[in-house]
Automatic annotation (TrEMBL):
<feature type="binding site">
    <location>
        <position position="77"/>
    </location>
    <ligand>
        <name>S-adenosyl-L-methionine</name>
    </ligand>
</feature>
<dbReference type="InterPro" id="IPR029063">
    <property type="entry name" value="SAM-dependent_MTases_sf"/>
</dbReference>
<dbReference type="Pfam" id="PF05724">
    <property type="entry name" value="TPMT"/>
</dbReference>
<keyword id="KW-0808">Transferase</keyword>
<feature type="binding site">
    <location>
        <position position="56"/>
    </location>
    <ligand>
        <name>S-adenosyl-L-methionine</name>
    </ligand>
</feature>
<keyword id="KW-0963">Cytoplasm</keyword>
<dbReference type="InterPro" id="IPR025835">
    <property type="entry name" value="Thiopurine_S-MeTrfase"/>
</dbReference>
<feature type="binding site">
    <location>
        <position position="139"/>
    </location>
    <ligand>
        <name>S-adenosyl-L-methionine</name>
    </ligand>
</feature>
<dbReference type="GO" id="GO:0005737">
    <property type="term" value="C:cytoplasm"/>
</dbReference>
<keyword id="KW-0949">S-adenosyl-L-methionine</keyword>
<protein>
    <recommendedName>
        <fullName>thiopurine S-methyltransferase</fullName>
        <ecNumber>2.1.1.67</ecNumber>
    </recommendedName>
</protein>
<dbReference type="GO" id="GO:0032259">
    <property type="term" value="P:methylation"/>
</dbReference>
<dbReference type="GO" id="GO:0008119">
    <property type="term" value="F:thiopurine S-methyltransferase activity"/>
</dbReference>
<dbReference type="InterPro" id="IPR008854">
    <property type="entry name" value="TPMT"/>
</dbReference>
<keyword id="KW-0489">Methyltransferase</keyword>
<comment type="similarity">
    <text>Belongs to the class I-like SAM-binding methyltransferase superfamily. TPMT family.</text>
</comment>
<feature type="binding site">
    <location>
        <begin position="16"/>
        <end position="27"/>
    </location>
    <ligand>
        <name>S-adenosyl-L-methionine</name>
    </ligand>
</feature>
């Protein structure tokens, strides 16, 4: 397929912050994503008490679902507003601390301890800061990454997962000449070459 029209497109961090400020967040789904329910067994693979990563997490309600099932959830999100809305909309008390390794970054942690949301760019994270994960829920993340940054994103994700991890990825299929994205159209062949 021809993805040429999207290859050069860049959405800046400032633009994402503005979307949150303007409430221009059509990607956020109050009711959560049914695909996670459908493929939960694939993610968990019979395991309990997993560490699950939400890249570009927004205020995804699925973080609460998984935490309530006894998993520990780590997310990363550039918008502090999004992170604060997540905790307040679920009535979760939290504390806020700087991340010594990343200048300007903060981590917001639920008082119960099982949800930690890093407020910084995902490209500032590494496994030495956040550890490695048993599972990943990637919805609105790879497809939100600027096309030119996909390789960098995928390499980072590969670095952040344990050997026996499960990675659920949601993509969207449409004619990339008719919509500029995000969400961007990521062809299956590209997903294969990014993640192997
Ligand atoms: N996964 C969420 C949000 C999808 S929208 C959901 O399913 O609802 C993409 C989110 O990524 C936005 O909230 C945006 O603010 C955030 N974002 C964009 N670039 C980022 C970056 N480099 N690092 C961290 N978060 C980023």
């Amino acid at each position: 397929s021809d993805v040429g029209s999207q290859k050069e497109r860049v959405v800046t961090e400032e633009e994402w912050l503005q979307k949150w400020e303007m409430g221009n967040i059509g990607f956020h789904k109050e009711e959560g994503n049914l695909l996670l329910r459908k493929y939960l067994d694939v993610l968990l693979n019979g395991r309990s008490g997993l560490r699950i990563f939400f890249p570009l997490c927004g205020k995804a309600v699925e973080m609460k679902w998984l935490a309530d099932m006894g998993h520990s959830v780590v997310g990363v999100e550039i918008s502090e507003q999004a992170v604060k809305e997540f905790f307040s909309e679920h009535n979760l008390p939290y504390c806020e601390e700087p991340v010594p390794e990343i200048s300007g970054a903060k981590v917001f942690q639920s008082t119960s301890g099982n949800i930690s949301l890093y407020c910084c760019s995902i490209y500032d994270l590494s496994s030495s800061i956040v550890g490695k994960f048993d599972g990943v829920w990637d919805r609105g993340a790879l497809v939100a990454v600027n096309p030119r940054d996909r390789q960098c994103y995928a390499s980072l994700m590969i670095n952040l997962v344990e050997k026996n991890s499960s990675y659920l990825l949601v993509t969207v299929s449409y004619d990339p000449n008719k919509h500029k994205g995000p969400p961007f159209y990521v062809p299956e062949s590209e997903i294969k070459s990014l993640f192997g």
